[in-house]
Design the sequence.
């Protein structure tokens, strides 16, 4: 093990871990990068114009054609196609009051519609396909349509999306499917597109991205061109290697999420890179598509959510060709969207060492839909997967003491101006000094050495008090519980608010064994009432999207689960402590 730890780290240019610290009254701490944010583009399509002129034949997007060979689209082709779409949108008189909504997932038509909207200055709203394909009541989709009042709705396939559209899209709204895409591609881009594009500036709304709806109906987060472009410059400063070599991504991350739709999609265009659109997902059966793609295409930057890395591990262990291709020119592994389990974090690093004979950094950052998303990042190797790093240039990070931790609040050019048509939500999202309330809790890894980074300690809203008045910090407790039972537990919800001890509602994973779980439960640690789980219930029914128990990216909504399964909680507490069902 000691010899492995001495292996060299693959050479990659990244920002150094530096931070300026200012301590104020009441224990408030401000963190900033000591570096100024470099100038950034006024609009993302400036970069598309630049690369279409500088490298017209370079591949921007590649997508499998009918699941077989890769169809490649150059910068010049994408730019011209997007401008034709822009002309069609302008001819329809679309506007922020009548934007474009896309209900289906990542594909070349979706990309052309998005870029056409950016040229035309028409906001675009990508909507989670789950609200159409997995929902049974279409309540979230209906609330989104009511809020947006779209002038045009696009979906890839009528057969898949037709029922949802009929149920939720207002009558009279123009609806197009893939077979109708030629109606958007027919207009010739002329002076009207140039004039509209010239009017697009930093304050122009680029898109509306929707929150998960975990605390009610999804909110439409306003994303301006300033937000997106400043955030790309932050990312480009931190991940400095993209300045030297245009990034190559094999990416499934959905464009209706800020990580896939802003950070990854934007990173490619801003830096002249290439995106291979991965139609796989980190789910049984669907992960095979991702594996096939990664056998053929070697990324230089690889992003995935923690569950995605967990799904990849068995294939990386057993498939030498996959390992060799995947790691061959990889600069950085990056996870976000949720905390990665420590065993997944450690094993990914170990497989990289075994394959390459050197370390490949497994890095991360943190932000939200309201922050563009990239507001902090870790650019150095860390043994603790919960280390989220330090603020990016341009970010003013305010840490407010809260129950032995800090609540994070943020200012910067990458912060949203608010929520579309929801002034009350906008007002409550910012504090009295105008800082956005992120709602996440952190501690310093080393308070004497703040440049060692901040450790994520969960959502403030998930914490609660026991009947003794003792606070329970759910984030770390949940992470340690999942780690203790890995890989048998898919997720867990911590119960016990107002009670004398803690309980766990457990969503089992494939391969769950009740006997092994009970054995490990008896060995579960915890030295006090606020961190010792005394009882549990195994849930047969998976979390419900319609009931708000789960977001479409697989994140569990703790409070929704507890409310919906109140009878299960009551039954769990009626049983004798430390006894399984």
Sequence:
């Amino acid at each position: 093990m000691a010899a492995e730890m001495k292996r060299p780290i693959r050479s990659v240019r990244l920002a150094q871990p530096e931070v300026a610290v200012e301590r104020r009254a009441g224990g408030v701490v401000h963190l900033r990068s000591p570096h100024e944010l470099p100038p950034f583009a006024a609009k993302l399509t400036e970069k598309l114009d630049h690369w279409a002129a500088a490298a017209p034949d370079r591949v921007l997007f590649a997508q499998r054609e009918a699941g077989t060979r890769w169809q490649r689209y150059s910068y010049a082709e994408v730019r011209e196609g997007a401008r034709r779409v822009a002309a069609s949108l302008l001819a329809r008189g679309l506007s922020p009051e009548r934007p474009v909504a896309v209900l289906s997932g990542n594909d070349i038509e979706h990309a052309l519609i998005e870029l056409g909207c950016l040229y035309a200055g028409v906001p675009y709203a990508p909507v989670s396909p789950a609200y159409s394909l997995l929902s049974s009541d279409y309540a979230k989709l209906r609330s989104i349509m009511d809020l947006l009042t779209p002038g045009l709705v696009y979906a890839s396939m009528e057969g898949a999306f037709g029922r949802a559209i009929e149920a939720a899209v207002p009558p009279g709204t123009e609806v197009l499917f893939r077979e109708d895409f030629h109606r958007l591609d027919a207009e010739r881009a002329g002076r009207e597109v140039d004039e509209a594009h010239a009017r697009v500036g930093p304050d122009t709304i680029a898109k509306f991205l929707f929150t998960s709806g975990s605390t009610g109906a999804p909110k439409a987060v306003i994303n301006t061109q300033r937000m997106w472009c400043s955030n790309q410059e932050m990312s480009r400063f931190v991940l400095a290697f993209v300045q030297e070599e245009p990034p190559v991504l094999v990416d499934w991350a959905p464009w209706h999420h800020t990580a896939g739709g802003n950070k990854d999609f934007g990173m490619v265009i801003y830096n002249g890179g290439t995106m291979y659109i991965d139609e796989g997902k980190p789910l049984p059966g669907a992960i095979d598509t991702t594996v096939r793609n990664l056998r053929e295409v070697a990324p230089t930057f690889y992003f995935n959510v923690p569950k995605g890395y967990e799904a990849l591990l068995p294939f990386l262990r057993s498939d030498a060709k996959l390992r060799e291709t995947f790691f061959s020119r990889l600069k950085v592994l990056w996870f976000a969207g949720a905390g990665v389990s420590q065993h997944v974090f450690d094993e990914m690093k170990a497989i990289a060492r075994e394959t390459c004979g050197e370390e490949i950094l497994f890095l991360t950052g943190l932000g939200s839909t309201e922050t563009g998303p990239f507001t902090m990042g870790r650019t150095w190797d860390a043994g603790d997967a919960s280390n989220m790093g330090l603020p990016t240039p341009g970010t003013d990070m305010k840490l407010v003491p809260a129950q032995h931790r800090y609540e994070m609040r943020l200012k910067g050019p990458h912060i949203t101006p608010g929520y579309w048509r929801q002034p009350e939500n906008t007002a409550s999202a910012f504090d009295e000094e105008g800082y956005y309330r992120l709602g996440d809790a952190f501690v310093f890894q080393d308070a004497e050495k703040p440049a060692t980074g901040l450790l994520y300690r969960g959502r403030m809203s998930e914490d609660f008090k026991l009947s003794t008045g003792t606070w329970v910090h759910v984030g770390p407790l949940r992470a340690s519980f999942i780690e203790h039972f890995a890989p048998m537990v898919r997720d867990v919800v911590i119960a016990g608010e107002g009670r004398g001890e803690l309980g766990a509602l457990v969503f089992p994973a494939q391969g769950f064994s009740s006997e092994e779980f009970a054995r490990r439960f008896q060995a579960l640690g915890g030295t006090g009432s606020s961190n010792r789980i005394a009882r549990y219930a195994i849930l047969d029914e998976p979390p419900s999207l319609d009931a708000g128990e789960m977001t479409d990216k697989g994140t569990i909504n703790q409070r929704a689960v507890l409310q919906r399964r109140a009878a299960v909680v009551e039954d769990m507490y009626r049983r004798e402590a430390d006894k399984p069902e």
